[in-house]
Amino acid sequence: MADASSSKVWIGRSVFVILTVGIIFAQILPLDTRPTVWAPPDWLLAVTLVWVARRPDFAPVWIVAAIFLLADLLFQRPPGLWAAMVVILTEMLRARTASIHEMPFAMAWGWMAMGVVAITIINRVVQTVVMSVQAPLALSLIQMVMTIIFIPLVVLIAQFIFGIGRPTLGQVDSRGQRL
């Protein structure tokens, strides 16, 4: 019984890693080299927030940190800044997992939206203080809004394609802790 749940956790983690590395790879591809006037959603952040809110055991902190540090390096962002903020946000969500599972989806979406807004603002402020090169404010705001708007789509995809739903009442992880 423990082996079955342990293998399910490792399969869930593997799916998360493959999906996030695929997103990074897709973003690196030079499909269009013209400057854009709008920014697409941060799919990597949306997927991570949904995975952590729905099944925190499938996205442990060390995997989230490694994925976002890799993304920082590949996207030529300040190494570790965005990764640290995402880790803090995911840990705050992870601490509220029990209450997030009990609240309606709109409230959970609101918590994720507030987190996305907070880390976007903090990222802008820190990069401004250290005088780092950053994207125009309008593009950052568009990306933030688009990420928030597309979180429900990511939830639907996670639920119906990958089977990452809310844990059922009384479901426990491999260590016997309530999910």
Notes on the protein architecture:
- The protein has helices at 2-28, 43-54, 61-74, 81-95, 97-102, 105-129, 137-160.
- Helix content is 69%, strand content 0%.
- The model has no long low-confidence stretch (mean pLDDT 89).
- The longest helix is centred in the N-terminal third of the chain and has 27 residues, at 2-28.
- The protein has one domain (2-160).
- α2 packs parallel to α4 (81-95) and α3 (61-74) runs antiparallel to α4 (81-95).
- It is built from seven helices and no strands.
- It is mostly helical and 179 residues long.
In total, how many domains does the architecture comprise? 1
State the helix count.
7
Low-confidence stretches: none
- Describe the main β-sheet briefly: none
Share of residues in helices? 55-70%
N-end to C-end Cα span: 17 Å
The shape, in one word, is: globular
What is the overall pLDDT average?
Answer: 89
Quick one: how many beta strands? 0
Category from helices, strands and their pairing: mainly alpha
